[in-house]
Specification:
two-stranded antiparallel sheet, 143 residues, alpha+beta, GTP Cyclohydrolase I, domain 2
């Protein structure tokens, strides 16, 4: 890893870790300093192979999760985000709850200026569901 001291606390990036966390509660989202905190710029993270479990049937749900945010003082580290999102694979939860949980967890660790989490779930029973959650909440009214 580079000699930057502000990156020394990252536990996954640059390591050969392959063991995925068993649940989102076990996963550790990591952050690093935003080197341009005074600039408003968007970061878009796209996870096209997200999976979770239906809490009623136990059947797998798949989705594309898109996270767009304007960082504040920190950014989320993408390897830790990958492990966090993969930890939902055995997590029984409704699609709406998953998207809101991801938003809440990212807001808690990053406090971004703005963030939108969108889950585009594969059709089940002939209906395709998309959920979008935003922070701050007032963004929803202006979208």
């Amino acid at each position: 890893m580079s000699g930057r001291e502000d990156l020394q606390n990252l536990s996954l990036l640059g390591k050969a870790e392959t063991r995925l966390p068993a649940s989102p509660d076990e996963a550790k989202l990591e952050i690093f300093p935003n080197l341009r905190p005074g600039r408003r710029y968007w970061i878009t993270l796209n996870c096209p192979e997200f999976s979770s479990l239906c809490p009623v049937t136990g059947q797998p749900d798949s989705a594309r999760i898109v996270i767009r945010y304007i960082p504040g003082d920190v950014c989320v580290e993408t390897k830790s985000l990958k492990f966090y999102l993969a930890s939902f694979r055995n997590q029984p939860a409704f699609n709406e709850e998953i998207v809101n949980r991801i938003l809440d967890d990212l807001v808690e660790i990053m406090m971004p200026q703005e963030i939108i989490v969108r889950g585009e779930f594969a059709p089940r029973g002939g209906i395709q569901l998309t959920t979008e959650a935003t922070y701050p909440d007032s963004l929803a009214a202006s979208s």
